[in-house]
Design a protein that fits this description.
The chain has 699 residues and is mainly α. Helices cover 73% and strands 3% of the residues.
């Protein structure tokens, strides 16, 4: 069967009997295995960590070292060299760019003292990669180690020519020449290097070379070339410190002053000013240092001068007086305000505080420019929209500016110019500010220019009339004693606003104060005859007070009757009755009370008809108080009989949509006629009394 399977090209299968015999062998082997009867964990457990630790402990302590080879004769040395060279050559043939292999190959040749072969290896490596800095360093160090000075110079010269920006080549080349005592050669190398305008460390190394050679003049020349190449604060500061160490204070100061002129303003930083001021402080020039600090704090923004300000505070504490310390505080606040207005220039409250700070720091007339500068910058930030709400605080900047010019700077002309500019800025077609016109007019009055003041106020009420403008203009003319102008102004005022009760009352009061009662009464008549009034009650009150003050009782009574024809308000009735009481002179007290009682009775009847209980109670209480002060007992008893009873009641409360929202308690008044008309009220009263008595008896 196997042969047939092979001839057919199929995989031969073992016979069935053979397969069965193998399965039987496996079953017998499994049956012969010992069975585990105890499946509990062993008392000693072995972990993987323990296995690794034991394996580590069983290792040999000393690592394997290859046996040393000893070369006994030149032939063996030649064979050894050939074998090593062949290995290196084979390695480089597989990877020519492996610079480590080249360096090891050259080191091997150097160890064999075969310098020509070593140079050949380095040259071959340079042909492969001439930009590899490590290769040039190893090459030059090999020549230097073996004291091949000219060869080393040749290597260094080639290296700095190919890669002049590699500072390490220059440093090592110059160090080699200096160690050989060739200072002139080192200086020449520095000259070559500085032609490439290297970084600061190259120039400082050049300076140190000249100082080691005891050539300070040459070092100073190097610094001149240094600052010409790098016109930066750090270069100038290094030069100034060099001069200070040399004891040349004047030269150091000259260096700082030249730096201020030569550098751009953007390079005048905090570190430079600190170095300059500290130099002057070390030179015992406190005034110079203070001037530098002040200039720096003015020139630099606060965010760039934090350390400078701290140093200035320390300087003033050491060398300054009280005024100097105050100036430091002012400067710090000034920086804070500058940052605030820079963040939001339309925050006018910050401008107010800033201007107040500058005004408090004024020491002489020369300081006025600071305050003016702040005000000019503040008023330049015009509100972005023609909305009076945005302009309210802004206008006060102009007013404060004008007050400063007038009161502090004593320059009235400049103050007038400031106010004129403020009036020009305000959009009067949308709104105006009466205080601007009034302040300008008062300024002209203080300068004894009355015509200019009248012209300003006239222009104001012509362009943008306002109540305050009319009032201030009238007050000005009253102070000047020109009554005719006051009358004309009131005429224009009432033409512009005929419903203004305050204007009518003020006009009438003016005429009354002048003794013109008929004119005042005529004005009041015109006023109460207007169809529309903003506050008619105040006008009627003023009219009544005028008549009562003039003791024109009949006219006052007639005026009250006219007013009652318009309104039946309880205050009018009470005032009418009070007037009747006051109208009684000596010997007329009883008659006056009778007239007042008649008014009270009329008022009570009126409110009884209209059903106004609260007003009726007020009238009765006032009537009772009047009789209690001086009336007859019978009249007082009759009024007491009319007084109502106060009872507590409940009524439903409705919500916003008309739904029931609960109950509320309120007080109601029940008069005698209501009680007689409703007998059930007596029953309720008797029940209330019975309950009260029962509660008292139980207690």
């Amino acid at each position: 069967r196997l042969r047939r399977a092979r001839t057919r090209g199929q995989n031969p299968q073992p016979p069935v009997r053979a397969r069965r015999s193998r399965a039987a062998e496996k079953m017998s082997a499994m049956s012969n295995m010992p069975k585990v009867t105890n499946k509990q964990p062993a008392p000693m457990q072995i972990t993987a960590e323990q296995i690794l630790r034991e394996a580590r402990e069983r290792q040999e302590d000393e690592p394997y070292t290859a046996p040393a080879q000893k070369v006994m004769d030149p032939e063996e040395l030649a064979v050894y060299r050939m074998k090593e060279r062949k290995q290196y050559e084979d390695r480089l043939r597989m990877n020519r760019n492996a610079m480590g292999a080249w360096i090891k190959y050259a080191a091997f040749e150097e160890a064999q003292r075969d310098f020509e072969r070593a140079r050949s290896v380095y040259e071959r490596a340079i042909d492969v990669d001439h930009r590899n800095s490590a290769l040039w360093l190893k090459y030059a160090e090999m020549e230097m180690r073996n004291r091949h000075i000219n060869a080393a110079r040749n290597v260094w010269d080639r290296a700095v020519t190919l890669m002049p920006r590699m500072d390490q080549f220059w440093f090592k080349y110059i160090y080699m020449e200096e160690m050989l005592g060739n200072v002139a050669g080192a200086r020449a190398l520095f000259d070559r290097w500085t032609e490439w305008e290297p970084e600061d460390h190259a120039w400082t190394s050049f300076v140190r070379l000249e100082l080691r050679a005891n050539q300070p003049d040459r070092a100073r020349a190097v610094f001149q070339r240094y600052v010409a190449c790098h016109n930066l604060p750090r270069a100038w500061v290094k030069w100034a410190k060099f001069e200070e160490k040399q004891g040349q204070t004047a030269n150091s100061r000259a260096v700082f002053e030249a730096a201020m002129q030569e550098m751009d303003e953007r390079d005048h930083g905090e570190a430079f000013f600190l170095a300059f001021a500290q130099f002057e402080e070390r030179a015992k020039e406190a005034e110079r240092a203070r001037a530098i600090y002040k200039y720096a704090l003015e020139a630099l923004p606060r965010s760039q001068a934090l350390d400078l300000h701290k140093k200035y505070v320390q300087f003033e504490k050491q060398h300054g007086d009280r005024r100097g310390i105050e100036n430091v505080v002012v400067t710090r606040k000034r920086f804070a305000y500058e940052e605030a207005v820079k963040a939001d220039p339309h925050t006018y409250d910050v401008w107010f505080d800033y201007a107040r700070l500058e005004e408090s720091a004024i020491e002489a007339e020369a300081d006025y420019h600071r305050v003016r500068d702040v005000y000019e910058r503040a008023v330049a930030n015009v509100p972005p929209a023609a909305d009076k709400r945005l302009w309210r605080r802004y206008i006060y900047l102009w007013l404060k500016y004008a007050l400063f010019e007038e009161l502090t700077a004593l320059d009235a002309e400049r103050a007038a110019a400031v106010l004129a500019e403020a009036r020009r800025v305000v959009p009067h077609e949308h709104f105006t500010f009466a205080k601007l016109w009034v302040h300008a007019a008062h300024l002209e009055v203080r300068q004894k220019r009355l015509d200019a003041a009248r012209k300003l106020l006239g222009q104001a009420i012509g362009r943008c009339p306002k109540d305050k403008l009319f009032k201030e203009y009238v007050q000005l003319e009253l102070q000047l004693g020109d009554v005719e102008r006051c009358r004309k102004l009131y005429g224009r005022y009432l033409e512009w606003s005929p419903s203004n009760c305050a204007a009518w009352a003020a006009y009438a009061d003016l005429e009354a104060s002048l003794g013109e009662a008929s004119r005042s009464r005529a004005i009041f008549e015109l006023a109460v005859g207007q169809e529309q009034l903003d506050m008619p009650e105040s006008l009627w009150k003023a009219y009544l007070d005028f008549e009562i003050g003039a003791s024109e009782w009949d006219k006052a009574r007639a005026l009250y009757r006219r007013l009652l024809a318009r309104t039946r308000h309880v205050k009018v009735w009470l005032s009418f009755a009070t007037m009747e009481v006051e109208a009684g002179g000596e010997g007329e007290g009883e008659a006056a009370r009778e007239r007042a009682a008649a008014v009270y009775a009329e008022a009570e009847a009126s409110f009884r008809e209209s059903g106004q209980k609260d007003e009726r109670v007020l009238v009765l209480e006032a009537w009772r108080d009047m009789l209690a002060r001086g009336g007859s007992e019978a009249a007082l008893a009759s009024v007491e009989a009319k007084m109502p009873k106060r009872v507590k009641k409940r009524r439903p409360v409705l919500g916003e949509e008309g739904e029931a929202a609960g109950w509320e308690e309120y007080y109601d008044y029940i008069f005698a006629e209501e009680e007689a008309a409703a007998p059930s009220l007596k029953i309720l009263d008797m029940a209330r009394k019975w309950k009260k008595q029962k509660v008292e008896g139980d207690s």
